[in-house]
Structures are given as C-alpha cells and as structure tokens.
Design goal:
Length: 273
C-alpha cells in the first residue's frame, strides 16, 4: 500500500471516528440534560448555567491559544524536529499555566463582582451559587491545563483516543445524572463537584497517555525563547477577535438574559442550545 493510500485511509478513519463521537455525544448530552433538569429544577439549572458562564467568559484567549498549540505541534512533527517540538510543547504548557492563573484572578475579581452584584439569583440560593462558582473556576483551570496534551493527541492524529475520551466524558456525566437523583444534599453543588471530578479524570488520562506515547511531553522545562513565544501569540492573535466575539455573543447574552428575566430564562436557553 502506497503512502498516499495510507494517508487517505487514515483521513477517512479519523473523519468517521469524529462523526461517531459527535453523534454519540449529542444524543447522550440531550438525554443527560433532561435528567439533570428534572433533578435540579428549572431555577437551579439556570443558576448553574449562568454562574459557570461567568467563568467561561474569561476563556476567550484559551480558545485562540488552543488552535495555535495544535498548529505549531503539527508543524514541528512534519519537520521531524524533535528538539524544537519539545521546546514548543514546553512553551505551550507554561503559557496555559500562566493563562489559568490570569483567569483565576479575573474570575475572583470581575467575575465575582458580576455574581454578587449583577446576576439575578434568589437570596436563598446565593450561597450555593457561590460554591458552584468556585468549583467552576477549579474546573476551568483543570480544563485549561489539559489543552496542550489534547493538542498533542490531535497533532499525532490519535483521533480514536480523542473520540473515545469524549464519549467517556458524556457517558460519565450520564451516569452521574442518574447517581445524583439518589444522593442527598444540595444537588447543584454536588453536580458541580462530580462534573469537576470527571474533568480531572479526563485530564489525568490525557497527561498519562501523552507522557507514555509522545516523547516531547515527558520533560517539561521553562523555555527562554522570546521569538517562539512571539510566534505562538502572533498566530493566536488572528483567532482572538473571533473568540472574543463568540464568547460575548454566547455568555454575554446569557448574563443579560439573567439580569432582565431571571434564571429560568437561562434554563430555557441552555436546553435550546
């Protein structure tokens, strides 16, 4: 079999895996949303959606950097330059750690101010909303740290791992949706904690898989290479405007709906999306 035929088969296989992942994820997520809505109720479901959205609004830079990370890792793999590949991966890890710290600072200042002063949340649910918000920040940090490792898996074209882990994610949340029905306590806080744990397991698997199979992920060290950082950020800049616009369009509308119509409207929007 020629290299051309092998590439075609790999592309076809990866495409089918991604479509399979998308179909399964969509169907399972729809059913999970129904169960979680029935368990939390329309008010708590809406509060959880808008509270986590307050954290997500600060992740626009993460989306832009994710594309940049995948692009540069793939480029160095194509050049078969292992030394530069290691440097690029290490640089992206430290960039995402710095980004996670920045998002925590923004979330604990501007985001917390939004939560406490602008969002419409029933007084009796404010304490639970605050807990869900803090758990949401931790979940976001875990998700950001995972990005370089997910980008490495995509760069190495391991779409089967990517697809199976996505299916694990939605499958685990479906199992938790059934479990939360029989657990006592504040359902909204418990759901936030359990989904954070699933995200942590997801990240641990990605890191473990990458360290076992990809040499560039095994030795992370701080890189003093200004041109490399400049390249990574300059490429990200082209995606940044779109990421900001998309985040404001999505989460900005969600916050405005809450301010003018309350958490039940956030529930309706979350289900429609």
């Amino acid at each position: 079999m020629s290299a051309y035929e092998g590439n075609n088969k790999r592309i076809a296989r990866n495409t089918l895996l991604l479509y399979f992942r998308m179909g399964v994820s969509m169907l399972v997520s729809l059913y999970t949303a129904r169960i979680v809505l029935g368990t939390l109720g329309e008010v708590d479901y809406g509060i959880l959606n808008v509270v986590t959205g307050c954290v997500a609004i600060f992740t626009f830079l993460n989306g832009a950097l994710s594309g940049s990370t995948s692009r540069f890792l793939t480029f160095e793999l194509g050049r078969d330059n292992q030394e530069q590949l290691k440097k690029t991966f290490s640089a992206t890890v430290f960039i995402h750690i710095a980004l996670a710290i920045a998002i925590v600072i923004l979330s604990e200042t501007i985001g917390l101010w939004l939560l406490m002063n602008k969002l419409v949340i029933p007084a009796e649910r404010m304490a639970a909303a605050h807990w869900a918000y803090q758990i949401g920040i931790l979940s976001m940090v875990i998700s950001i740290i995972q990005v370089p490792y997910g980008a490495a898996i995509i760069a190495h074209e391991k779409m089967d791992i990517y697809a199976y882990m996505s299916i694990f994610d939605v499958g685990a949340k479906l199992a938790l949706a059934f479990l939360i029905q029989v657990i006592g306590g504040d359902k909204m806080i418990i759901w936030a904690i359990m989904t954070m744990i699933v995200g942590a397991l997801y990240t641990i698997f990605y890191i473990g898989y990458c360290r076992r199979h990809f040499g560039e992920t095994r030795c992370i060290k701080f890189i003093k290479d200004k041109p490399l950082y400049k390249q990574l950020f300059s490429y990200s800049w082209w995606d940044l405007l779109g990421q900001i616009s998309g985040m404001l369009q999505g989460q900005g509308i969600n916050i405005l709906l809450n301010m003018f119509f309350g958490p039940v409207m956030n529930t309706a929007r979350a289900i429609s999306y």
